[in-house]
Automatic annotation (TrEMBL):
Any one GO BP annotation for this protein: cellular response to phosphate starvation
Record key words, sorted: Kinase, Membrane, Phosphoprotein, Transferase, Two-component regulatory system
CDD domains: HATPase, HisKA
Compartment(s) where it occurs, according to its Swiss-Prot or TrEMBL record: Cell membrane
Limits of the Histidine kinase domain: 86-301
Protein's recorded name: Sensor-like histidine kinase SenX3
Catalytic activity: ATP + protein L-histidine = ADP + protein N-phospho-L-histidine
Lineage: Bacteria, Bacillati, Actinomycetota, Coriobacteriia, Coriobacteriales
InterPro entries recorded: BphY/WalK/GraS-like, HATPase_C_sf, HATPase_dom, His_kinase_dom, HisK_dim/P_dom, HisK_dim/P_sf, Sig_transdc_His_kin-like_C
Length: 316
């Protein structure tokens, strides 16, 4: 008979111990259920049970990671929706022009002079669509695979000269006086991508200078970076936040509109290429007039050897 009271006491003590041990886990389970339902919940160890505190810390890190991922996904989805809206708007304009002029051509009584005019508009808008498609594919390729596949030592002076030579017909038509000056340390990069970036900057500058204007591609090193600065004596970009210039399809005032022939993606491509090379890009208005667009890419130290694509090395 004595054993019965002792057993009851032991059972009660076991219930209390079990409740003490399970309470932190029950509270954690309730918090997880609330978190799954979308309620704001904080996970902080309370010191009641070491193992429960470890589990709570793990859940806290998991919730923080999940919340950050949800935030990043929301931003990405917003940017994608914004991008699709911008692309649709940019495509609608030339398509509308092509359709409208094509309908005018269907008029059998249309004078020959207007026939030629409308055909010219259709050709120009078709070319613009082609440029826009090309730039969209270029931007998508860079952003989907941001790290260049072929990395090698790049001499920026040689690269800048090759860009100016390639653009010489366009620069000549726009009566642009273009020069390359200075020297910058070599960089590790993808020559084709870097050439694309410099081409976009020089070609962009040529759109906004007057006939006989000047473009200078200046090279120099600063704070461990190699700088490519493309300067022009055009109209500049006014009081606009320079960071906005590198957004897709962003356009400033009437001087930098579709009338210049751009797609609104050139500077966005430059930014993506610079960031893919662990670099940055900036824009400033020059005090004497015009604009300066600068790409900064980490320089290769003079005592470093870099592997070329075919496997051999070239000493600095």
């Amino acid at each position: 008979m004595v054993l019965i009271p002792i057993s009851v006491v032991i059972f009660c003590i076991s219930l209390l111990i079990g409740h003490f041990l399970s309470e932190p886990l029950s509270d954690l389970a309730k918090k997880m259920a609330a978190f799954r339902s979308g309620a704001p919940v904080t996970f902080e160890p309370d010191g009641r049970m070491y193992e429960a505190d470890l589990l709570t810390s793990d859940f806290k890190r998991l919730v923080q990671t999940t919340t950050q991922q949800q935030h990043d996904l929301a931003i990405k989805e917003h940017r994608q929706n914004e991008f699709i809206s911008d692309v649709a708007h940019e495509l609608r304009t030339p398509l509308t022009a092509i359709r409208g002029n094509a309908e005018m051509l269907a008029d059998p009584d249309l004078p020959p002079s207007l026939h030629e005019k409308f055909c010219g508009i259709i050709v120009n808008e078709s070319e613009r669509l082609s440029r826009l498609t090309h730039d969209l594919l270029t931007l998508q390729r860079i952003e989907s695979s941001p790290i260049p596949e072929t990395m090698q030592r790049v001499n920026l002076h040689d690269l800048a000269n090759s860009v100016v030579d390639a653009l010489s017909p366009i620069l000549h038509d726009r009566q642009a006086n273009t020069s390359v000056s200075g020297e910058a340390p070599d960089v590790l990069g993808n020559p084709d991508s870097l050439r694309q970036a410099v081409t976009n900057l020089v070609e962009n500058a040529s759109r906004f200078i007057k006939p006989g204007g000047h473009i200078n591609v200046e090279l120099f090193g600063m704070n461990g970076n190699s700088i490519i600065a493309v300067k022009d004596d055009g109209c500049g970009f006014g009081d606009v936040d320079p960071k906005l210039l590198f957004d897709r399809f962003y356009r400033t005032d009437a001087s930098r509109t579709r009338g210049t022939g751009g797609t609104g993606l050139g500077l966005a491509i430059v930014k993506s290429i610079a960031e893919a090379h662990d670099g940055t890009v900036e824009a400033v208005n020059l005090p004497e007039g015009g604009a300066c667009f600068m790409i900064a890419i980490p320089s290769i130290p003079a005592d470093i050897s870099v592997k070329k694509p075919h496997g051999k090395t070239k000493n600095a």
